[in-house]
Specification:
By secondary structure, the protein is an alpha+beta fold. Helices cover about 35% and strands about 20% of the residues. The strands form three sheets. Strands 13-10-12-11-15-16-14 form a seven-stranded antiparallel beta sheet, sandwiched between helices. Helix 13 packs antiparallel against helix 14 (about 390-410).
Amino acid sequence: MSSETASALAAIVGAERVLTDADSLLQYGRDWTRFHTPAPSAVVLPGSIEEVQAVVRLAAQEQLAIVPSGGRTGLSAGAVALNGELVVAFDRLNTISDFNPVERTVRCGAGVITEQLQQFAEEQGLFYPVDFASAGSSQIGGNISTNAGGIKVIRHGMTRDWVAGLKLVTGTGELLDLNRGLVKNNAGYDLRQLVIGAEGTLGLVVEATMSLARPPKDPAVLVLGVPDMGAIMQVLSAYQGRMELQAFEFFSELALQKVVEHQGLQRPFETPTDYYALLEFEQVSEADMDTAMALFEHCVEQGWVVDGVISQSVAQAENLWRLREDISETITRWTPYKNDISTTISKVPDFLAEVEQVVNGAYPDFEIVWFGHIGDGNVHLNILKPDALPVDEFKARCGEVSKWVCEIVQRYGGSVSAEHGVGLLKKDYLGYSRSALEIELMRQIKQAFDPRGIMNPGKIFDA
């Protein structure tokens, strides 16, 4: 970056908000992935939509690539700046305003922390249901840009289901105000939905109108030990046949061992099983608990469940959830190689069996941790790096087998990126989930929004 460009940025946002020190470049230049060395030219922290527009116009004029930075909790290197890009961080666009109790909507700056929105909703007697382990640090703009999912998708859907409107700064610095909170709007293409999940390649999400819901009534959590993946799907079918579930998660015995050992938690029960299912349901009446227990007994009789425990208090429910939610944080120390894959729910047992066979055959000396949102067909395969193995060699070995995994995904009509996005990490595998024509249309859409190609270039696909 030239000194003239740096001075122009300082004139827009203030000199103290243009960061070029090594610590800031490292902090803002990467996400939770650790396979790339960040190398941005500078970090800028605008404080208003107008400042974002001015920064983008300057970048377009100087042909300076931009990488958006939210909470930097992404798992596909979508927010990594590798080649001297300008990082635009949204920490200062963090206000919540214009709450509408009739519409149940609220306006959020892109830098609002997910947990901040959840707490605001709770203060209004409402509920923001998109939830995941990084809710305490992820930002709404990043959630929208990756269409974040999480643990409540089976009942409440993905982030896109809760975005009533959004504002986007395009690659030319223009501001689009999309949908404006309307429930019904069939006036042409819904550009809002194109932007959601685009990982910042079409423009910068600067503000969003988010929908809220009624809070769940007295949720209870049930953790079940199951002998195999087929049994998990039988349990899901049994419970969904008679109850509306808030969540249905799974994790493996190795995942449980890691969490118990490193987070100071207790096993849910003494009997070890290959897999565990975690269910959450509302207790609208006493009959709901009776139904849940009757289904538990039925599942035990059928051999689908070996043992189980149900929460008797809010604190116990929170601790049971930690067995699942603390997995990602726990395994970070092993620099895991993550496959975030999905197929239709009914195909999951056969799908997972094929993937396991390939992975276990290729990695007999690696630890494999499984967990995920199996109630919506999404499983997370985490390969843990041995301490003595260099990162580059580990990544190369995992990349070879990822191709075989993606071939299975393709055969099952699934997705190579269920909820984490494509970024840099999954870019080479996009063709296993999208046709050549689809990818070409994506390129044309990007060209329309970003004619100079400055918005998060090299992510999802190469221009």
